[in-house]
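Retry 2 of 3 after timeout on previous attempt. Resubmitting structure tokens to design endpoint.
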């Protein structure tokens, strides 16, 4: 399976790009966000990929980063969401917006994507709500307070401390949010880090 391509951007279209790797041109279907991130034709680029095989088709999907690819895989696991719809969602929403929408159950935000009706949007957020917290992207409903906290605040500093200990940003943010709920806003930074560390590790 082809997981990543690094080469020269040879050509682009409305929803595709051709990446020249050692003289071989790979056609990859992309979201508009990935196309914008690839740069200008003739420049070097790297694209993360997913090979999709069906009875009568084989196509390579391209993503600007592994986070977008992870979300694509999650989206296409929902009944009624094929690669075209998943790319439309990833074109309309950043991975952060998508994570927030699923975390908060905001179907209307997902329905902004072309070809996604209210019923399908509702199914997407319902099925992915519990999985959104562990995905890369935005704050998620559970950690909105941490994400909104200004740099230098206790919440932001505690999350940063956990990240420095090796925890992923999403895990750190969730743990700090839960610690804040338990201890309250008056908790010291040391207590916040101690409790958040237990929650992140547990």
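Retry 2 succeeded. Sequence:
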């Amino acid at each position: 399976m082809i997981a990543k391509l690094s080469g020269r951007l040879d050509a682009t279209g409305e929803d595709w790009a051709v990446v020249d790797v050692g003289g071989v041109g790979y056609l990859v279907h992309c979201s508009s966000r990935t196309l914008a991130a690839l740069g200008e034709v003739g420049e070097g680029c790297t694209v993360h990929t997913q090979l999709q095989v069906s009875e009568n088709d084989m196509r390579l999907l391209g993503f600007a980063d592994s986070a977008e690819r992870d979300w694509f895989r999650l989206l296409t696991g929902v009944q009624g969401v094929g690669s075209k719809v998943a790319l439309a969602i990833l074109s309309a929403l950043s991975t952060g917006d998508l994570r927030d929408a699923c975390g908060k159950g905001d179907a209307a935000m997902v329905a902004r994507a072309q070809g996604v009706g209210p019923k399908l949007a509702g199914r997407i957020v319902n099925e992915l709500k519990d999985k959104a917290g562990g995905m890369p992207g935005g704050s998620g409903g559970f950690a909105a307070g941490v994400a909104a906290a200004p740099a230098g605040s206790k919440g932001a500093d505690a999350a940063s401390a956990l990240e420095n200990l090796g925890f992923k940003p999403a895990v750190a943010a969730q743990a700090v949010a839960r610690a804040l709920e338990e201890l309250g806003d008056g908790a010291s930074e040391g207590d916040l880090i101690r409790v958040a560390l237990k929650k992140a590790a547990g």
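Attempt log closed. DSSP finds ten helices and five strands in the chain.
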